[in-house]
Amino acid sequence: MLDNASKAFFHLLARSSTLKKIASRYGMRSPTSFARRFIAGETVEEAIVAARQVEAAGLMQTLDFLGESVSTLAEADAATRDYLRVIDAVIQAGIGRNLSLKLTQLGLDVDRASAVDNLRRILERAEDFFVRLDMESSHYTETTLAIFETLWQQNYRNIGVVLQADLHRTEQDVERIVALGARIRLVKGAYREPASVAFPSKADVDAAYAQLMKRLLRDGTYPAIATHDEAMIHEAQRFATEQHISKERFEFQMLYGIRRDLQASLVSQGYRVRVYIPFGHQWFPYFMRRLGERPANVGFVLRGIADEAR
Ligand code: FDA
């Protein structure tokens, strides 16, 4: 319950324009500013520096050019063109070719067909990339999966999707995507959801996560176990060993700036670990979701604001 309350609280704060103004003013302005703990920077060059550091430490990466919920086709087109530039920059830099993006960033709220066209433009340029469709709130789950399935049937095979263990529907969605043979990133779920669609208690979300994770480890196609929850990670390791599932058949994923110790420790044990590296000017909603997951982060942000203001 506390978790839902905290998500709800930060969801509310995320809509405050005053807070956004303060955060935008102080959050990223120097290399030590508070938002930089979670966001690699505002430019693709900064993201590439972060990606190189991550890869030098033996980890893999996926880049997320932040943005969501655009409200005009012009913005969706601009976001698409930004992504095309990111693709060129990644190729030029010679780093791993892996992207994460959101359909509302490409115009899903404005016009579904245009969002799909924009996604196709990206997929065509990113032919030898892997492109993950992030999952947004439950309002978008069915549409995102339907678009994913259409593209899959049209033979776009360099794509994967995200499923959220907190939703009641996810057990069926896992079966649906496993049947395609497509890759799933399993997460707990970062959005505030009503009890009619999601488990309100963290214990239930954790139990669902553990169960779905095992289903994917056993029968999924190269699943991504995306969590910082040590107990869950230990359970994945234990289960994989018990079932003779080799370390190459799945990967762990974590967010930039969170549990770097755990990321390094998994790599040293021979596991594949990918870091999700967000960057761009539109970092505020992403940043607020990270605070909502762990309210203790607020203290560190407030100290950061006080330091910067001084
Ligand atoms: P849990 O919340 O139980 O946290 C376990 C431990 O991790 C905490 O005790 C703490 O130590 C640490 N931790 C977790 N969050 C932290 C934070 N913000 N700051 C500091 N420490 C923290 N969600 C979604 O809805 N759609 C998506 O597409 C994605 N994509 C995605 C990609 C990747 C690579 C990851 C790792 C996560 C996502 N998520 C996501 C977010 C996900 O749904 C979830 O909100 C967060 O991962 C937090 O949940 P945990 O699984 O880490 O567990």
Write the layout of secondary structure elements.
Blueprint lengths: L1 H13 L2 H10 L17 H13 L3 E6 L7 H21 L4 E4 L10 H14 L4 E4 L7 H13 L5 E6 L5 H11 L2 E5 L14 H18 L4 E3 L3 H13 L8 E5 L4 H9 L4 E7 L4 H10 L3 H13 L1
Helix pairs in contact: 1-11, 4-5, 8-9
Bound molecules: dihydroflavine-adenine dinucleotide (FDA).
The site of dihydroflavine-adenine dinucleotide has 23 residues, from strand 4, strand 7 and helix 11.
Task: Write a short abstract of this structure.
The chain has 310 residues and is α/β, with parallel strands linked by helices. It has 12 helices and 8 strands.
Structure description:
The protein is 51% helix and 13% strand. It is an alpha/beta fold and 310 residues long. The protein has one domain (2-309): Alpha-Beta Barrel (TIM Barrel). An 8-stranded parallel beta barrel has the order 1-2-3-4-5-6-7-8, surrounded by 6 helices. The chain is globular, with a radius of gyration of 19 Å. The two termini are 37 Å apart. Bound molecules: dihydroflavine-adenine dinucleotide. Dihydroflavine-adenine dinucleotide binds at residues 134-135, 162, 164, 187-191, 226-229, 253-255, 258-259, 276, 290, 293-294, 297. Residues 134-135, 162, 164, 187-191, 226-229, 253-255, 258-259, 276, 290, 293-294, 297 line the site of dihydroflavine-adenine dinucleotide (FDA).
